[in-house]
Amino acid sequence: MIDGKKVLFSGMQATGTLTLGNYLGALKNWVTLSEEYECFYSVVDLHSITVRQDPAELRKRARRLLTLYIAAGLDKKKNCIYYQSHVSGHAELSWILNCFTYMGELNRMTQFKDKSSKHADNINAGLFTYPVLMAADILLYQADVVPVGKDQLQHLEITRDIAGRFNAIYGDVFTIPEPYIGKTGAKIMSLQDPTKKMSKSDENPNDSILLMDDKDTIIRKFKRAVTDSEAKVCYRDEQPGIKNLIDIYSTCTGKTPAETEAEFDGKGYGDFKLAVGEAVASVLTPIQEEVARLEKDKAYIDSIIKENADKANYYATKTLRKVQKKVGFPERVR
Ligand code: ATP
Ligand code: LTN
Predict the structure, then answer these.
(1) Active site residue 197
(2) What distance in Å separates the CA atoms of residue 6 and residue 4, rounded to the nearest whole number?
């Protein structure tokens, strides 16, 4: 608890360009939750180097991501928006937690299996211990809730196991976090293959809507989206392409899937796809305008980076000192 509020932690990697999936599945929920919780939203750049990155490109993307957090509506006063690499406690706690995590547990992580098959030439130890760093992120702030997409649930489960194991030995040190999965938009699928999720690392540009795509591009991509020959706007598993478009439209307009079905009853896919494109553009355009405005205001973004790194460091150090004492490191002499 901080000032009587429960604590929330989440983060995103600055790899690739954010997609509509990242926005509807994560960022949009973050904004809603920021009223209720004391929130820490991190640009997790330490995690990014588990896959080889171009340094200049990583720096640029990390800044763009932090700007996007703010442009999407996260208030810098209510939320702590910061770079993971500016708080050394993440790496320090991660080392300690490594010593409380079993190889067998890490071997079961599906993301490790996926990423090591994708990057067979660089299966580094960081990729293997990635979930431990994620546990450190969350436990460092004594987070109660962690909003994540379904793909990250396994990492949250291991975080809970590590925290429980530590607490069983040393007493009540860590808060055990709960996952938070949004009601809508939890899994936005690819526009070209609605059986796989829309992802930053998609190769075909028509698979995903990028957060910075302009209106014409958005409408063109939806026009090309894969559907079916049923010619009926119906929310059912047998029509995965249309189901995905209904999910997107409903999440953007705040309607339920049933209301969307009713609205397009008797209308063709052409009309529906155009409406989806327009709804998405009207959500993304204001965010893009805000990014452009913020990117011109370097001093403002810099001040957020500085103030929030200090705030995050303050809470991180509090937990870290407690943990260091518990495991038996010598006290600091002042
Ligand atoms: P990558 O392709 O590099 O693995 P990604 O697009 O899957 O990246 P992440 O950085 O792993 O994105 O995820 C950031 C956040 O966005 C996570 O909370 C994740 O669950 C959520 N997210 C990612 N893709 C989707 C999607 N298609 N639908 C809903 N939520 C998503
Ligand atoms: N692994 C997550 C990003 C991430 C995260 C976290 C999410 C790193 N640390 C802590 C929630 C809490 C991802 O790839 N989406």
Answers:
(1) yes
(2) 7
